[in-house]
Structure formats: C-alpha cells, structure tokens
Write a structure and sequence with these properties.
The chain is mainly alpha-helical. The chain is 65% helix and 2% strand. Strand 1 and strand 2 form a beta hairpin. The longest helix is centred in the last third of the chain and has 27 residues. The radius of gyration is 17 Å and the shape is globular.
Length: 193
Amino acid sequence: MSTVSAVAAPRTLADAVPGGLVRSIVLVLAGAGFVGLSAQVVVPLPFTPVPLTLQTFAVLLTVAALGSVRGFASMAVYMLAGLAGVPWFSDGSSGFAAASFGYIAGFLLAAFVVGRLAEQKGADRKVAPALGLMVLGNLAIYAIGVPWLMVVTGAGLPAALGMGVVPFLIGDALKIVAATALLPTTWALLNRR
C-alpha cells in the first residue's frame, strides 16, 4: 500500500514561502517595515495637509501577498508602532493627530478586504481581477481617510475630497497599475517554478 501526499497550492504569495509561525511573524514585520519605508518617499502638496507617498502601493502589494490575517496584522503593527512613537509614518512622523492618520487606519480595512479576496478568490493572479482588487483596496483606504480628514481639518465632504482624493487620483492610478502588474507576474513566475 502506498500513500501519495498532495501538496496544497498556496492561497497567497506568502504561503509559497516555506515555514510556519516564524515565517508568518517575519513576513508580518517585513510588511510593516516595507510600508514604513515607503512612507518616507514624500512629495508635499501645498494645497493639502496629506502628502503624496508610496504607502498605498506598498500597502496594497503587501496585503495581497500576505492575505487577510497576516496582512491585517502587518498593518496593525505598522499603525500601533507609529502610535507608540516609531517615526515611520509619512515624512518621519508618528501619532494620530496628523491629517493623514485616517488613511493609515484605512490600511486595516484594505488589508482585510484585499487579503481576503486574494486568498479566497485568487484575485491577485490575473490582471483584470488584480486591477479590481487594487481599486477596491484604494477605495477602502479613502473610506476611512476622508472622514478622518474632515474631522481633523473641519472641512466638509467636497473640500475633503478636494484635499484628500482628487489630488491623488493620477498617482494612485499609477501605483495601482504597478501593483497589478507585479502580482500576476510574480504568480506566473512562481507557477513556472
């Protein structure tokens, strides 16, 4: 009698990395670090308190690769460390008083949504679904970021959209295209191996 063991296909890119709990911890911390580093690429805009950064690119790519649980944990580590004083929010800031903190809180929602769709639906494996996944993740970030911006600045919805969404649409589109290109390409390379 012989036994044949089947190897389960990875649900996320992180599952393709060998290891167990230690792997997951390292990936969670690396994801938080990647987002922290990307937050240091800052282009201040004179007409809004929210700077242009590479954070959303790093967040969307990280949470799609990690899945919902590890992705959420990674964004929680990023946020909680920044609240505790680690200066790795945009331009070396920390704390929750900044106008852009709502977007950071939105990373948690994006992590859950993007991570869940990537792991359950495989939405990160083909270009069209990956594009939809990235757009949905970006909308999740805006869904928390814009109301926080309204509270911090006292602006109404039209003004908050003018400060916190409209100036970022072209940059976000470019970041979404880059993340969309990277995910299916990485899966294709992994599948060839």
